[in-house]
């Protein structure tokens, strides 16, 4: 774990990778969804980012939307949007492409795998 401060375009102060065992739950102020455990943190003003939101790419190719690359945008305040993966409202950073596709996704939701194995759904 690096304790070197990093800069992020969403915040004016340096942030450091941090793990708070006493208060592990936090609101990511990048994508505005909750997180748990390790995150980027600003000790000057208690700003938090998911570890992924602190390092996510500006342009992303994903199996979730294979027709276009996804572009990271800050909240535009002009449109009410919903994540096409978790169906929660998007209130902060998100990936999206063209208005024609209307595909939007939280950065943290892009980290979900293409397939899951679950004990309650055994494939034989």
UniProtKB/TrEMBL annotation:
**UniProt xrefs under InterPro entries:** C1-like_sf (IPR046349), DC1 (IPR004146)
Q: Keyword annotations for this protein?
A: Repeat
The answer, when asked if Repeat is one of the entry's keywords, is yes
Does the keyword field hold Repeat? yes
Q: Superkingdom of this entry's organism?
A: Eukaryota
Domain DC1 stretches: 9-53, 64-109
* PANTHER family (UniProt xref): DC1 DOMAIN-CONTAINING PROTEIN (PTHR47841:SF10), DIACYLGLYCEROL KINASE THETA-LIKE-RELATED (PTHR47841)
What is the protein name for this chain? DC1 domain-containing protein
Tell me which species this is from: Capsicum annuum (Capsicum pepper)
Lineage of the organism: Eukaryota, Viridiplantae, Streptophyta, Embryophyta, Tracheophyta
């Amino acid at each position: 774990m690096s304790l070197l401060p990093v800069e992020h375009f969403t915040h004016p102060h340096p942030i450091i990778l941090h793990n708070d065992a006493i208060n592990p739950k936090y609101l990511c102020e990048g994508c505005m969804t909750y997180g748990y455990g390790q995150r980027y943190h600003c000790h000057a003003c208690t700003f938090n980012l998911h570890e992924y939101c602190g390092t996510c790419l500006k342009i992303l190719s994903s199996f979730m939307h294979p027709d276009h690359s996804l572009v990271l945008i800050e909240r535009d305040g002009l449109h009410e949007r919903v994540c096409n993966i978790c169906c929660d409202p998007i209130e902060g950073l998100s990936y999206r492409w063209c208005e024609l596709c209307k595909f939007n996704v939280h950065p943290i939701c892009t980290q979900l795998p293409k397939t899951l194995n679950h004990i309650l759904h055994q494939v034989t």
